[in-house]
Write a structure and sequence with these properties.
Layout: E1 2-13, E2 18-29, E3 35-38, E4 48-50, E5 54-59, H1 63-67, E6 72-78, E7 84-97, H2 112-121, E8 131-137, E9 144-149, E10 155-164, H3 166-179, E11 188-197, H4 199-207, E12 211-214, H5 217-220
Parallel strand pairs: 10-11, 11-12
Antiparallel strand pairs: 1-2, 1-7, 2-3, 3-4, 5-6, 6-7, 8-9, 9-10
Helix pairs in contact: 3-4
């Protein structure tokens, strides 16, 4: 990755036209070919960028640009479109290159697989007397996250999401319709479980007779004791 801190101006042309006036910015040139311009603000989002595949060519400024103080010009051209990013560099304060190697990627904590494993281990969160049948119960349209039984032996299908929205309720509805046709499982009750459930999803779930369960991930991991909270 190449890091350049410089006073610069930029023009983007193609599917849209945009201009960045003269200012001091950070320019990133990544190994994948992408070029990004960042300011000292705006969080992670660049002010402008060119995504790969693209090519970068550095040229000398013409006489008019040189009179304005431009020391070099970056031409960034997309390989599959007419999109073009032209960056004029004035004074350069830093220019370095670093080999970062292959990144292993982000490992998310609290993803659906973690929630599923924890709820399977703590199936009593559904209430006393509930038992686990199995995780990833196979069906013709995909696996049900958890299949369980209540104290009376009735079947429960549980769909787990980090953030529960209408799509998740629709998905569980399809599972319930399919499982309900199996005489060995019917009748089947549904539980929609998530760390956060949107109001629209709650309304739809209630309308379809599906119970909603909010999962406290930290408490399930044993890192938070709800009984010790003041609020």
């Amino acid at each position: 990755m190449r890091l350049v801190v410089a006073e610069c101006a930029a023009r983007y042309s193609g599917r849209l036209d945009a201009t960045l006036p003269f200012a001091r910015r950070l320019l990133l040139v990544k190994a994948d070919g992408s070029v990004l311009l960042h300011s000292d603000g705006g969080s992670y989002k660049p002010l402008n960028w060119m995504s790969p595949p693209c090519s970068l060519h550095v040229v000398e400024p013409d006489d008019a640009a040189a009179e304005r103080g431009v020391t070099s010009v970056w031409h960034v051209q997309h390989a599959k479109s007419d999109d073009r990013l032209e960056i004029e560099l004035f004074e350069v304060f830093h220019d370095s290159a670093h080999e970062l190697g292959v990144d292993p990627g982000l490992v998310k904590d609290g993803v659906e697989a973690h929630l599923q494993a924890l709820l399977a281990e703590q199936i009593e969160l559904l209430g006393p007397g509930h038992t686990l049948v199995r995780r990833e119960f196979p069906t013709a349209i995909g696996p049900v996250d958890i299949l369980a039984r209540d104290p009376h032996g009735s079947t429960i299908a549980i769909e787990i999401k980090r953030r529960g929205d209408i799509d998740g309720v629709e998905q569980l509805t399809r599972y319930l319709e399919l499982l309900g046709r199996d005489p060995l499982l019917a009748p089947v009750r549904g539980i929609f479980a998530a760390q956060e459930i949107k109001p629209q999803a709650r309304v739809l779930a209630k309308d379809r007779g599906i119970e909603c369960l909010v999962l406290d991930y930290q408490a399930m991991r044993g890192l938070d004791d709800p009984s010790s909270r003041l609020f």
